Amino acid sequence: MTSVPLPQFPALSEKRSGAIESFSNNAVFSAIRDTYTSFQARRDALGLSNPGTVENVAKEVQRDVFLNNLSFSGLRADLTKAFSVAPLFQVSHAFSQGSQQIPPYAFLALFGTNKVFCQGNLDSDLSLSARFNYRWTPRWITKTTAQIQAASMAGPGGAQFSLENDYAGNDFTAQIKAMNPSVLDGPLTGIFIGSYMQSITPRLSLGLEAVYQRAAAQMGPESMISYAGKYKGDDWIASAQLMTAGGLQTSYWKRLSQQLEAGVDLNLQVAGMGAAQGGMMGGIRKEGVATFGAKYDFRASSFRAQVDSAGKLGVLLEKRVVPMVQITFAGELDHVKNSAKLGLAVSIEAAEEEVMQQAETIATSPVTPPF
């Protein structure tokens, strides 16, 4: 029996490598690759830094100086127990009296590692809020939040869910966020936000944010685009955000000394009025609020004060009595409504000696926690 030689075919790996080599030698592909490499090299030579996000374009003023998220009224007492620092695990008990916005009691627990951060909050009104963050890579993080508001005298209650993906590059940040997305009623409903912030020079960064929302299937969709800009000086930062729906917000922050920093914010809203508001021909409604605030850091305390053109004056004093005890005093005076609010809070932090030593070691380490 005579054997017939079989034809020799090239291996699959040889075919694949040959195809890749021929594609890489293509003139069009080489031109695109060289252009991208040259652009990336010039980009790296500028030494640009990450500009942050569009929603935090004015955080130096609105979060670091102003009292937007710190002011309260009534009496508060917060007891925090830390079981470990790495990984982070602690629980808190919050008691409140004399405030319509804060429930009488709330329990909070949080757990965090280099990749995972979990936080849950349950109050005496049976309202639940939870947050879960997962870091896929050092640059990419997914954030989820869920809130279930029980019905009370303040409102009928409801539920809210949001999913957010953030990617932080060397000189840009991209965000995609969805709030209450649903397809159960047919068309896609919810609020969807996409933003991109890019550093143009070491001092200037520009951003764009687009919002698409549809409250219900029987309602039409709405969209809005806003443009953001931020410029950093040696000891000052100026930012602005322009909304196509008719709004402008500008902020200016300046460090006057090592302990003192100040900021001013201007929020202007311009909207058209219908016949019921502006007569047969309608009109344009202009509303604006200017706010000025300052923050002074003492050795063991911090004092904030702000005043706006709407007639509100607010102050906040945070005093660290001992390393584990902090006292906070808040006050607000509204000249237009002729009303005043006062708040006093005591925060006590408890931890074992081993946990305290672990916290001091992490605090002196150059590596900062990811969340």
Structure, described:
Belongs to the Tom40 family. Pfam families: Porin_3. Its main location: mitochondrion. It is a multi-pass membrane protein. InterPro entries: Porin_dom_sf, Porin_Euk/Tom40, Tom40. There is one protein chain. The protein is mainly beta. 14% of the residues lie in helices and 53% in strands. It is built from 5 helices and 19 strands. The chain has helices at 12-24, 27-45, 59-62, 275-278, 353-363; strands at 74-84, 88-97, 105-112, 116-123, 128-135, 140-149, 158-168, 172-182, 189-199, 204-214, 222-232, 236-243, 247-255, 260-273, 283-297, 301-308, 312-322, 325-334, 339-351. It has a 19-stranded mixed β-barrel. A hairpin with a 6-residue loop joins strand 8 (172-182) and strand 9 (189-199).
What would the keywords be for this entry?
disordered C terminus, 19-stranded mixed beta barrel, 371 residues, globular, Porin_Euk/Tom40, mainly beta, transmembrane, Porin_dom_sf, 19 strands
Q: Layout of helices and strands, plus pairs?
A:
Blueprint: H1 12-24, H2 27-45, H3 59-62, E1 74-84, E2 88-97, E3 105-112, E4 116-123, E5 128-135, E6 140-149, E7 158-168, E8 172-182, E9 189-199, E10 204-214, E11 222-232, E12 236-243, E13 247-255, E14 260-273, H4 275-278, E15 283-297, E16 301-308, E17 312-322, E18 325-334, E19 339-351, H5 353-363
Parallel strand pairs: 1-19
Antiparallel strand pairs: 1-2, 2-3, 3-4, 4-5, 5-6, 6-7, 7-8, 8-9, 9-10, 10-11, 11-12, 12-13, 13-14, 14-15, 15-16, 16-17, 17-18, 18-19
**Could you give the distance between the termini?**
75 Å
Structural class label: mainly beta
Query: Could you tell me the radius of gyration in angstroms?
Result: 27 Å
- Kindly state the number of beta strands: 19
Oligomer: single chain
Tally of contiguous helical segments: 5
Mean pLDDT: 85
Largest sheet: 19 strands, mixed, barrel
Helix content: 10-25%
Strand content: over 45%
Catalogue the unreliable spans.
Answer: 273-281, 366-370
Tell the overall outline: globular
Question: H/E element string?
Answer: HHHEEEEEEEEEEEEEEHEEEEEH
